[in-house]
Design brief:
eight-stranded mixed beta sheet, Maf protein, alpha+beta, about 25% strand, 7 helices, about 200 residues, elongated
Length: about 200
């Protein structure tokens, strides 16, 4: 299996399901289109990353399943939160999310290459959204969390699977989606695509 993401958390989730992973991150323009809904945005990024990784790694991808994913945090007003680049940005994000409900959406694109017809690719994409409620966070709590270093490679500036769990009052939806990959839904999509490979309309060349 090819994982078009450098996220160690996604790789860990897939390996825990018994998959052997080759990591080939895709690099694309991640600019959000004007008026693009957050869920459409994150699914589009996943599709573009999957197709880019497939194009750039055709030999490695031949006969393989390729997965790309992207996760964003967003609020009801449409504001999106990616990965903070520095402590000040992490602080602004966490203050904005403090005491509120926000949404975590992961877009996923699955490509199955070369079976039954070499050179053909079956494609499926979807997104999953989980609602997350934060406690009211004091400036001291935010400063402590930033000092752990956890915020800097995570959408929204926190990791629910790490020390960021202390910030979370509760969730509605898939926990692993917040981690970075809705693994249960992905496994169902893999099975569905594999079962439908005989339908030529699902292929692109």
């Amino acid at each position: 299996m090819i994982l078009a993401s450098a996220s160690p958390r996604r790789a860990e989730l897939l390996r825990a399901e018994g998959f052997q992973i080759e990591v080939h991150p895709a690099h694309i323009d991640e600019s959000r289109h004007a008026y693009e809904p957050p869920v459409a945005y994150v699914e589009r990024l996943a599709v573009e990353k999957a197709k880019t990784a497939h194009r750039d790694n055709r030999e490695a991808a031949a006969g393989q399943t390729l997965i790309a994913a992207d996760t964003i945090v967003w609020t009801d007003d449409g504001t999106t939160f990616g990965k903070p680049e520095n402590a000040d940005e992490a602080r602004r994000m966490l203050r904005r999310l403090s005491g509120t409900r926000h949404h975590v959406s992961t877009g996923v694109c699955l490509l199955v290459d070369g079976n039954p017809m070499p050179g053909c690719v079956a494609e499926s994409s979807f997104y999953e959204t989980t609602d997350v409620d934060f406690f009211e966070l004091s400036d001291e709590e935010i400063a402590w969390y930033i000092s752990t270093g956890e915020p800097f490679d995570k959408a929204g500036g926190y990791g629910i699977q790490g020390r960021g769990r202390r910030l979370v009052r509760g969730i509605q939806g898939d926990f692993y989606n917040v981690v970075g990959l809705p693994i249960a839904q992905l496994l169902r999509q893999i099975k569905r695509v594999q079962q439908s490979l005989e339908d030529p309309s699902r292929f692109w060349f």
